[in-house]
DNA sequence: TGTTGAACTAAACGGACCGTTTCGTTATGT
DNA sequence: ACATAACGAAACGGTCCGTTTAGTTCAACA
């Protein structure tokens, strides 16, 4: 593809931003191209023109690398709507999220992270205690606002949020992210009652 | 553990039930012991005293083997309650299901199957078109009955079912299957409105 | 100015699995 | 009697893991 043969030597006793960028770019590119199934540190290193030890130095396991390459754009890419009703907000946000997952390789990152969490305790911990809280903070705002508007009681915020999250996971994990899924709006209706 | 050195030779031009049983038993045992992370066909073959080609002959991929070792007891183990309200039925069934997943190695089978579906197209197809329809048939009955009782409209049956499924997946995949999860009944309430 | 130390890549390591092939054996069905 | 098919053992080539060794490049510091 690109002219890759240029080798990056050390730039001294500090982390090389070029190497970091090259690794992330290669990882994202590889995921977009082959999906999680074809994803390996070995191949990332090859494409990035980086040494495996370098990768292992900065990202001790796959989960950390996934988290690093996810998240970069998500917050920017998906605005949190505020259209006056949870129903409208959820509908828009869910559609945006699914489109993002379909088109941005981020869906594959996400699927990979969940899969990885089934084989690695570190990945599971990272998923539960780092990734999820971080990533759920902004969609949670929609539920908080709805409760403030009186659409439901404040104690229900996190329960409703979790039901919505489970719904999304089910779809991403079974590879059903078509935006026009007819039952989408029906399910969101149910979540807003 | 047990006296394993007895070798099962071929019993002629037909499938050996002993081998089949030994493979399933070894697979279940291995999953119970090490979880999905430590699960490999290689190790199953070792423990079962079986040849890898034999395993690959009868179960062309891991997903098929998972499906075979799941399901054996689930229907028997989890009765579908009929207590007059979806709320009561779901509460009981979900608690039973989570206990089953916690205690029976079946949870690990299930997690493994979902993880496998993220790396293998065959596994994904098996999950979507074989495992899920089969396994969801009996819990679905609870929702059908509730609709018949007039708790909600019949068109909502599968949407509510899917929300419930997503909720369960989220918990099994993040390793949160404690029976007394306080939010469990609150979420089930939400699903019944 | 010279030395120390950390970050870099390349190469190779032992080990685990994958999925397949080859082989000799065993018993069935015809 | 003979083709057929399933069996286990062993080994194949291959991929990837996570680590180690070795030689380099450069910044910081004395």
Automatic annotation (TrEMBL), chains A, B:
Check the record and name the Pfam families matching this protein.
TetR_C_11 (PF16859), TetR_N (PF00440)
- Which regions of the protein are recorded as binding DNA? 40-59
Q: Which domain of life is it from?
A: Bacteria
- This protein's record includes keyword Transcription regulation: yes
Q: What are the GO MF terms of this UniProt record?
A: DNA binding
**PROSITE patterns annotated for this entry?**
HTH_TETR_2
Alphabetical UniProt keywords: DNA-binding, Transcription, Transcription regulation
Ranges for domain HTH tetR-type: 17-77
Q: What is this protein called?
A: DNA-binding transcriptional regulator, AcrR family
Organism of provenance: Bosea robiniae
Instruction: Specify the taxonomic lineage.
Output: Bacteria, Pseudomonadati, Pseudomonadota, Alphaproteobacteria, Hyphomicrobiales
């Amino acid at each position: 593809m690109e002219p890759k043969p240029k080798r990056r030597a050390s730039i001294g006793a500090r982390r090389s931003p070029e190497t970091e960028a090259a690794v992330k770019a290669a990882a994202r590119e590889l995921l977009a191209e082959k999906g999680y199934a074809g994803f390996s540190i070995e191949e990332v290193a090859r494409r990035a023109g980086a040494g495996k030890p370098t990768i292992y130095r900065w990202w001790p396991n796959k989960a950390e690398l996934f988290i690093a390459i996810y998240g970069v754009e998500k917050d920017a890419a998906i605005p949190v709507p505020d259209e006056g009703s949870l129903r409208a907000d959820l509908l828009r946000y869910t559609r945006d999220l699914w489109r993002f997952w379909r088109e941005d390789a981020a869906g594959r990152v996400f699927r990979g992270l969940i899969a990885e969490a089934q084989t690695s305790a570190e990945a599971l911990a990272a998923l539960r205690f780092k990734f999820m809280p971080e990533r759920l903070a902004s969609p949670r705002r929609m539920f908080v606002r709805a409760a403030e508007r009186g659409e439901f009681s404040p104690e229900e915020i996190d329960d409703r949020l979790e039901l919505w999250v489970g719904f999304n996971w089910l779809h991403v994990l079974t590879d059903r992210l078509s935006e026009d899924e007819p039952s989408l709006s029906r399910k969101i209706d149910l979540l807003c009652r």
